[in-house]
Write a structure and sequence with these properties.
Shape: globular
Order of helices and strands: EHHEHHEHHEHEH
Number of helices: 8
CATH class: Alpha Beta
Number of strands: 5
CATH architecture: 3-Layer(aba) Sandwich
Number of domains: 1
Strand content: 5-15%
Distance between the termini: 15 Å
Length: 146
């Protein structure tokens, strides 16, 4: 069974902009098939928009990743699916959380630790980590030889 990881837009942005950070490592691991990277249409649109406006130098790397990673791209969730998560997370992030929940992913990765908190993870039942935390978990698994 393939592990499915939902990536927030900030993971795609940071991964495309830096060749040394944990977000880049996440994209590289997805590229070689260690897990399936899942995103919503909103995530892709947000990543591309922010790269165009703020980091145009990273657009070629972003396009390269999109061409080689077999992303699972989900439609954006319906408004009623988003609204029910607004008591737990900022309204602007509710569609991201709802998409991940509806996709039944194994974990959510985000650099937005202000909004994607442990409380949100407890409420939705899906572990939420930064890319750095996720990479550390992978290292521990490899060190144990599991």
């Amino acid at each position: 069974m393939t592990i499915r990881i939902f990536a927030d837009a900030n993971i795609l942005i940071a991964g495309a902009d830096s060749r040394s950070g944990a977000s880049h490592a996440v994209l590289s691991m997805a590229e070689i098939g260690l897990f399936k990277l899942v995103v919503s249409r909103q995530v892709l649109d947000e990543a591309e928009r922010n790269l165009r406006n703020k980091l145009p130098r990273a657009l070629p790397k972003f396009a390269e990743f999109l061409s080689i990673i077999e992303l699972e791209i989900l439609p954006d969730p319906a408004d009623d699916e988003c609204v029910k998560w607004e008591p737990f997370i900022e309204a602007k992030d509710a569609p991201i959380l709802a998409a991940a929940i509806l996709a039944k992913v194994d974990r959510i990765l985000s650099l937005n630790t202000k909004d994607f908190t442990q409380d949100v993870a407890d409420q939705c039942g899906i572990p939420i980590q930064t890319p750095g935390q996720f990479v550390q978990d992978i290292r521990q698994i490899l060190d144990l030889g599991i």
